[in-house]
Design brief:
The protein has four helices and no strands. By secondary structure, the chain is an all-alpha fold. It has a domain of 84 residues. The protein starts with 15 loop residues before the first helix and ends in a 34-residue tail after the last helix.
Length: 154
């Protein structure tokens, strides 16, 4: 042992005997190192490159997902704008159609139509024996003619 060493600072240096682990401490120290307790192993260059490549791949996948999300969001906003403009156009066309229908109905005088039909075209109201009533048998909006309509007896 070297007893001539000076003490620098407030703490004494460890001697060679203090630095060597005692019996039984080596196994414990190895166990702790293997279990990740005391000493951390330095990663190898291959492991570092693999981690870097993994992180780069994750970054690329995240960027692609973000790009796709923004693209879909923009498309959705465009669709909403288009739908809104088409709904405005439909409302305007319906209003124009209703106005045209009202104008057409207001210009028609049904009494004039009746007089022209009776006087000029020779039409007349049907007599009691000329009216034949058919049942629709479940048809809601029309009746199919499956046979010749019989002549009405006068």
């Amino acid at each position: 042992m070297n007893r001539t060493a000076y003490v620098h600072g407030s703490a004494a240096r460890k001697t060679e005997r203090d630095r060597r682990p005692m019996r039984g401490q080596r196994e414990e120290q190895k166990f702790r190192t293997v279990q990740g307790g005391l000493a951390a192993a330095r990663p190898s260059r291959k492991t570092t490159v693999l981690h870097l490549l993994f992180m780069l791949g994750a970054l690329v996948v995240t960027a692609l997902a973000l790009y796709q999300y923004v693209n879909v969001q923009t498309s959705l906003e465009g669709s909403v704008t288009t739908i809104a403009s088409l709904e405005k156009e439909l409302a305007a066309l319906r209003q124009e159609n209703d106005e045209a229908y009202s104008r057409a109905n207001s210009t028609i005088d049904l009494e004039v139509v009746k007089q022209v039909a009776i006087q000029e075209l020779g039409m007349k109201y049907a007599d009691e024996g000329q009216i034949i009533t058919y049942s629709d048998d479940g048809a809601r909006d029309y009746v199919r003619q499956l046979a010749v309509i019989p002549e009405a007896e006068n």
